[in-house]
Amino acid sequence: MTALDDRSVQPTVTSGPIMGSQKVYREVTDPDSARTLRVPHRRVGLDNGSHIDLYDTSGPYTDTDAAPGIDVHAGLERMREEWVRDREPVDGAVTQAAYAKAGVITPEMRYIAAREGMDPEFVRSEVAIGRAVIPANRCHPESEPMIIGKGFLVKVNANIGNSAVTSSVAEEVEKMVWATRWGADTIMDLSTGKRIHETREWIIRNSPVPVGTVPIYQALEKVDGDPASLTWEIYRDTVIEQAEQGVDYMTVHAGVLLRYVPLTARRVTGIVSRGGSIMAAWCLAHHEESFLYTRFEELCEIFRRYDITFSLGDGLRPGSIADANDEAQFAELRTLGELTHIARAHDVQVMIEGPGHVPLHKIAENVRLEEELCGEAPFYTLGPLATDIAPGYDHITSAIGAAQIAWHGTAMLCYVTPKEHLGLPDRDDVKTGVITYKLAAHSADLAKGHPRAQEWDDTLSTARFEFRWQDQFHLALDPETAQSFHDQTLPAEPAKTAHFCSMCGPKFCSMKITQDVRRYAEENGLSTVAAIDKGMRDKSEEFADRGKRVYLPMAD
Amino acid sequence: MTALDDRSVQPTVTSGPIMGSQKVYREVTDPDSARTLRVPHRRVGLDNGSHIDLYDTSGPYTDTDAAPGIDVHAGLERMREEWVRDREPVDGAVTQAAYAKAGVITPEMRYIAAREGMDPEFVRSEVAIGRAVIPANRCHPESEPMIIGKGFLVKVNANIGNSAVTSSVAEEVEKMVWATRWGADTIMDLSTGKRIHETREWIIRNSPVPVGTVPIYQALEKVDGDPASLTWEIYRDTVIEQAEQGVDYMTVHAGVLLRYVPLTARRVTGIVSRGGSIMAAWCLAHHEESFLYTRFEELCEIFRRYDITFSLGDGLRPGSIADANDEAQFAELRTLGELTHIARAHDVQVMIEGPGHVPLHKIAENVRLEEELCGEAPFYTLGPLATDIAPGYDHITSAIGAAQIAWHGTAMLCYVTPKEHLGLPDRDDVKTGVITYKLAAHSADLAKGHPRAQEWDDTLSTARFEFRWQDQFHLALDPETAQSFHDQTLPAEPAKTAHFCSMCGPKFCSMKITQDVRRYAEENGLSTVAAIDKGMRDKSEEFADRGKRVYLPMAD
């Protein structure tokens, strides 16, 4: 009996399309295998008859006919199973990096290219040089391929996982579905409590996005929470157990060296990474380098067999503004750079985790050094928080840093919820954290000039300008909240087409005048400012004719 | 009978200290007048016996003995009345700029210096060259002096005001008290509905912070909402009416020139400023430049008599990402630059309003151009929003831009609430908006290296590291929310001193180990990393002695 046969677990997952959207699958043919790839998008239909297709992470749960027929005991369709089965290893390696280096464009790469609106060859070349990674364990065939790299859309990770204090298996499955519904590109299962293996099995079998873990957490459970009792053998067996389940990327704190620990002694907040503190404790207890560092090549060989991506952990990241960019942090980063090159030599994909708490003026240096030391491996940062003084609002303090660091080149952002530093996020916190990070990521996509990013902003702003309220709501990252905020002041149905809102009222709406100006220009075929200026003079007379009212009655 | 005699208005205002804080007044002597200035601070007392004094905008409402004795019918104490009365004009001018240029350090400047921890002579010199302004109408003696300039703490403005749709006088007074309680440095009364004069009177008489307005809104009410019917005389009389009431700064959209209006015709969202659209409508209707522009010097003479500060409005600011940094926006900015120099020649203080909606990579240019064209007059921006796609979360999209632009030199940020683009903010939205902007402003203070900014972060992070939970809550921008989030998972009183929290539980807390490391180092008087490293080896043995447990039981 597998975990999913356990009928005592009855997850109820959210399903059905997002308000105002429908799921569409665009079909792409893979010329090598002649397979048809079905690439998901969130299509927002507009009142003016057009539509826009947005990147979609939510899996089959948002299919139009999904509600309520999803059987979580069956798990998702194993879409990638044949792809994985049918291809030959390259020099014994089955990783996306190995194929990319050999010049092979995998179905995953074609799928990603269609998702991102990029050329498949660009996807391949970015993976080949290690500037992008495709986390896709061969044992997680249910996942929809996605890519993490500075040349692509900035991605967002959401952490879930039960702890000793709260949460059940069913709750965690729903949190995964919920987080991906709002846009989480990957999720990390950070469970530390009971039923850790079963929880993960449920999550992976039902997850349309890559799943990451920190294996040292489960290893620590196996030694009853005593870091000094950890051994390579216990850790290795835990990694293999998780690899077989299909974990797509694993955080490994292999850069915490013994000699770096004293560098944290004068810090304001010392070591704030769980994994970092576990490994520091091990190093202190044994007074030698950790097995993560000394056995790193053996770990690479395991990762290579499954195509697991390294997420090299920043165990010494700063936990406060005072500790940002210090010697402990950058010493570890240099070691992560060495490990990156070792992993790449094994054809294993690598990304690098980053801080944490960093003031705005010290953010760019983090990206510059990471790229220099780690051969441009994708950077994956937690925020960073731009100040420490706002517990309860750290989704915002960190979104400020996250947008900034992503603009400079961070490829994936780990979300922070309003409960950071204070407690465990609930369902609402998960949604708030994901939406906050999606808007930060999109702000960076705009600043980086991603070819398809601004279309979304322009479509929404045009709807706003044209008083297409429903379109504005449907185009929002969170349509339900946008509409409910509007309806708190003007709930009646006619307000959805009104040419004003409660902010300024009908007399003070600033958007109407430009509509008049523009309509006039278009009707008269004017194409230059000088010509429009002529139009202005006519317009002046027209205004007088209308009784000098700019804002016509609503019925107009 | 004045407005405040009207007993049908019964504002109930929030009073009493912020949780965990007490109001203290530091006494400073003004050597010129021998007066004692009482400068307010929010003092947070800590469990370890120390305390920190924070900048405080909340006025007497948070005095320890304030609750519930504040009589809003009496108005606040007229602290500045004597200061204003006793000083001689300089060449006929009574503005802070005139005194500063004459080398006079006013009591307002000394008060500000004590508030900000700066030298009084620095305050004077910044005002003299126009790089900072002190909005302080002689007719608003109740206000506590404050300064807006890039050399000082970044300030936050909160907009309040009734509209035709909702809100009463009493509600607006409470919104003012509420917004300043959470840190609003100025408030703008943007009322457009009924009882506009009375609402403003109530607000000003009870406001400890400068009050700004947009006089064209009231002028438009006087002509029944028809922009084309506006005249210089109606506008002038409105300005004088508001000046006599004590409005400290006024937004004037004098840069909207006739020839700029066609530049907005091809925009995605045209003109989105209310004042800008009113003036554009006037220009179109009359086909000539507005009276704000043609009568600007007369306006300067009025402002000069009261010491009202110009806030030169950006009527053509971009309302979408697509329209950022376009010719319409920068054409108007050049005109604002010309007007700045005219106002300064009249010894009138000036700040410049800025956008709006701007992607991250176009933010710095806004500051650079503003400083170049407007002689470094303080920049006062609305956000900007870094993306358009998140209605319902625009306090966050705009905080991302606000932190960025303030780091580059913006002196004051106009807040944005979660209801932006959707509806009118309620009490909770006002608080969320203010707290969000305070953390954005503080992030910029850190990045700019304000001498006292980081002390707050370090004090809070030290409390966090030392598991002083109550201190962490009390030091937060919003202590109540921080504590309530913590208590949702661990409500019991012992959890307030526990050496762990619900996030990781007792076994996984990363903060404990560094405490051990640091304590050891201090006890042994070790001062270099090498010496600490020696300590590490001893520590290794000590760990073994303790049974290799890093995390000791709570009772330890």
Automatic annotation (TrEMBL), chains A, B:
For [4Fe-4S] cluster, which residues are the binding ones? 501, 504, 509
What EC number(s) does this enzyme carry?
4.1.99.17
The membrane-spanning stretches of this chain are: none
Annotated metabolic or biological route of this protein: Cofactor biosynthesis; thiamine diphosphate biosynthesis
Database matches in Gene3D superfamilies: 6.10.250.620, Radical SAM ThiC family, central domain (3.20.20.540)
Report if keyword Iron-sulfur is assigned: yes
Instruction: Identify this protein by name.
Output: Phosphomethylpyrimidine synthase
Q: What organism is the protein native to?
A: Streptomonospora arabica
Give the source lineage, highest ranks first.
Bacteria, Bacillati, Actinomycetota, Actinomycetes, Streptosporangiales
